[in-house]
């Protein structure tokens, strides 16, 4: 009897335990992807996600064809579609890689229940390095702070990656498949995807190419370069990991292997990179143990927080029109490319929640809609962390000063010039805070505050005091 492999956020052949297991049996395999935008509680994907998913599924279809298989596409409630396909092909087994969000797990359980009895349902660990239920504190609880989590997991070496199957047997008859185009995942009018398309190559092969180039050119200096937003110093693996086009196990071991053969790659660089991969795991750990991570304050005291609700202020932040160049550059990078540098994500996140006092859920939702890597665990966990409502509560230390951050990490303003071109001709000493420039300097650079570029939407010093007062009011 055939085996159905239900693919989700694991759109790859390499190190795909569910697929490898199915291939190893020699039995016919039906790879299946279900677009579920109907199940209550399952969060619909955002606009940038849809664009990425289209191309990722197109790439996966081709790589499956290369090993003799056809991807079956279906749209609808997964708890209905998946058992229906399993039954229609007379499959004896359903295999998939585990997911960790509450709604997704509930669907998986419903599918398993529907097939109970005559179909073997098996789930594998593929997309995070450490299973959340296996990492426990000394008292048996879960971790709420990253450093002890890291200490715990760094004692265990993640398993080795599994090579991709060379070929798959297919059943005599395949179930009907939707066409990818019929899902209309790509934007049409207006088509905003041009900037994204020129920034990204999508799919498993592209992810591997990008990672090899990162190891060759940037891994050795990753720890020094990763905070400098103007340079391409990080791996940009986040969307590939988000969609599972590349496995974290592959990244982990490839980075170590690369360092072993190249002595210019310092151990600190590798260690920093590995710690970032573990931040991702930590987010999943939190999500697994605190299901409503994306909707409810982890720290319930924040339920009383006096958030502001001015839509025009939110809109200015979304559009990159706050008058703070580093914030605006970040928000425009996000809009144009579907990605934002990590340091800038922290700056814009702090600006929204502290300077503008807008609820972190508004920021999270905007990121979810516009990021190609918008991730069910990392996005929520990082927004709560930056807002101060998260598991690791040190809100007072996380009011980022957008001017000093900009001066420190984008010293000559190259990043600002790239994404806020109307400030291009300002000298570096004032580009971080144009309102401090002499009238003649602004004039020479063709900048008219309030006309060619916004005047600052808030005064950071005053906004900081207001934020501290608001935070004190919920600290009890
Ligand atoms: P690299 O520096 O090359 O790091 C390698 C990998 O480690 C990343 O691809 C990512 O998977 C992981 N990683 C790195 N930093 C973090 C982190 N702080 N938390 C979790 N994982 C991390 N990351 C997402 O993948 N999806 C999100 O939706 C997301 N939302 C965020 C929202 C906010 C407010 C903030 C402050 C951060 C968010 N991050 C998110 C984390 C981080 O900004 C991105 O993972 C990183 O910028 C991706 O770039 P990279 O792949 O070049 O990272």
* Helical amount: 40-55%
**Small-molecule components bound:** flavin-adenine dinucleotide
- Write the H/E string, N to C: EHEHEHEHEHHHHHHHHHHHHHHHHH
* Total tally of structural domains: 3
Average pLDDT works out at: 96
Rg value:
24 Å
CATH topology term of the largest domain:
DNA Cyclobutane Dipyrimidine Photolyase, subunit A, domain 3
**Poorly predicted runs:** none
Q: What class do helices, strands and sheet pairing give?
A: mainly alpha
What is the CA-CA span between the terminal residues?
A: 62 Å
The CATH superfamily of the largest domain is DNA Cyclobutane Dipyrimidine Photolyase, subunit A, domain 3
Using the alpha-carbon principal axes, give the shape. globular
What would you say the CATH architecture of the largest domain is? Orthogonal Bundle
Largest β-sheet summary = 5 strands, parallel
The total of beta strands comes to 5
Spatial ordering of strands, largest sheet? 3-2-1-4-5
Number of helices: 21
Pfam families: DNA_photolyase, FAD_binding_7
Catalytic activity: cyclobutadipyrimidine (in DNA) = 2 pyrimidine residues (in DNA)
Organism: Aurantimonas aggregata
Domain Photolyase/cryptochrome alpha/beta: 1-129
């Amino acid at each position: 009897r055939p085996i159905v492999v239900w693919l989700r956020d694991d759109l790859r052949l390499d190190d795909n335990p569910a697929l490898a297991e199915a291939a190893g049996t020699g039995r016919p395999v039906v790879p299946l992807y279900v677009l579920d935008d109907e199940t209550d509680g399952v969060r619909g994907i955002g606009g940038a996600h849809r664009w990425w998913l289209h191309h990722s599924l197109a790439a996966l279809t081709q790589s499956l064809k290369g090993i003799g298989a056809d991807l079956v596409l279906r749209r609808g409630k997964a708890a209905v579609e998946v058992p229906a396909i399993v039954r229609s092909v007379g499959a004896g087994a359903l295999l998939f890689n585990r997911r960790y969000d509450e709604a997704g797990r509930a669907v998986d359980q419903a599918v398993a229940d529907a097939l109970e009895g005559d179909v073997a349902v098996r789930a594998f660990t593929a997309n995070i390095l450490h299973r959340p239920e296996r990492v426990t504190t000394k008292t048996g609880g879960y971790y709420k702070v990253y450093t002890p989590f890291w200490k715990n997991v760094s004692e265990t070496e993640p398993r080795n990656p599994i090579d991709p199957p060379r070929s798959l047997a297919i059943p005599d008859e395949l179930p009907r498949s939707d066409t990818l185009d019929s899902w209309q995942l790509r934007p049409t009018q207006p088509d905003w995807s041009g900037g994204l398309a020129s920034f990204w190559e999508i799919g498993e092969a592209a992810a591997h190419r990008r990672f090899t180039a990162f190891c060759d050119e940037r891994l050795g200096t990753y720890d020094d370069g990763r905070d400098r937003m103007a340079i391409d110093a990080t791996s940009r693996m986040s969307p590939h990991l988000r969609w599972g086009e590349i496995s974290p196990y592959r990244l982990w071991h490839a980075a170590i292997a690369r360092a072993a053969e190249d002595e210019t790659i310092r151990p600190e660089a590798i260690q920093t990179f590995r710690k970032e991969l573990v931040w991702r795991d930590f987010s999943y750990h939190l999500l697994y143990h605190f299901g409503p991570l994306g909707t409810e304050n982890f720290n319930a005291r924040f339920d009383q927080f006096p958030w502001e609700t001015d839509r025009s202020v939110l809109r200015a932040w979304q559009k990159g029109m706050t008058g703070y160049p580093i914030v605006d550059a970040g928000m425009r990078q996000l809009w144009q490319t579907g990605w934002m540098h990590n340091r800038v994500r922290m700056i814009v996140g702090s600006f929204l929640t502290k300077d503008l006092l807008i609820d972190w859920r508004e920021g999270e939702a905007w990121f979810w809609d516009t990021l190609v890597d918008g991730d069910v665990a990392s996005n929520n966990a990082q927004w709560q962390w930056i807002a101060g409502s998260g598991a690791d509560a040190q809100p007072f230390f996380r009011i980022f000063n957008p001017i000093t951050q900009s001066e420190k990490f984008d010293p000559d303003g190259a990043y600002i010039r790239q994404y806020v071109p109307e400030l291009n001709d300002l000298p570096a000493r004032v580009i971080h805070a144009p309102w401090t420039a002499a009238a003649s300097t602004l004039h020479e650079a063709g900048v008219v505050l309030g006309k060619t570029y916004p005047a600052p939407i808030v005064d950071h010093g005053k906004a900081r005091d207001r934020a501290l007062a608001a935070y004190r009011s919920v600290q009890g």
